Amino acid sequence: MTEPLPVDRGTAVITGASSGIGAATAEALSAAGFHVALGARRTERLHEVAARCVGPTTVHQLDVTDDDSIMAAVAEVERAANGGIMALVNNAGIAIGGPVEGLALDEWRQQFEVNVIGVIRTTQLFFPLLSAPRQPGDTHPRRIINMGSVSGLFASPFIAPYAASKYAMEALSDSLRRE
Length: 179
What we know:
- By secondary structure, the chain is of the alpha/beta class.
- It has helices at residues 20-31, 43-52, 67-80, 105-130, 160-178, and strands at 11-15, 35-40, 57-61, 87-90, 143-146.
- Helix 3 (67-80) packs parallel to helix 4 (105-130) and helix 4 packs parallel to helix 5.
């Protein structure tokens, strides 16, 4: 016998939800009663994740390096979530490695464009949905969750671009929390 879903907890948007931590987060939040709005560049993989979720899901093509892609996802989520969301999980990311002395600047730029600028861009564009007026009796706190890494605290050789981007995420998250 299947257990009933918990009370509807609202919508959680997850970037990079097509695999790994993003997919696992989607499944866990769905099981906890959230509507999950799955975002990633490749939607075919998102449909596989959605099939594993127990609650309502929506799939959105969302590339954190493309303003038009994010704005389209914001509009779709706003319609599906009746105007507001409970959480934004900034999980999309890449890892570029190699020796500092030999890594092309374009690779550094790509690392930061996805892991740092992409988080800022996504947070800014989804923020109005996080701060939408609440329904009477709604006291649930809104959350922005930025997926970090131990590499943001302890850098290792040959992963300087990734470690630097995750260190930047630590500072960004600290500032955002205090704002």
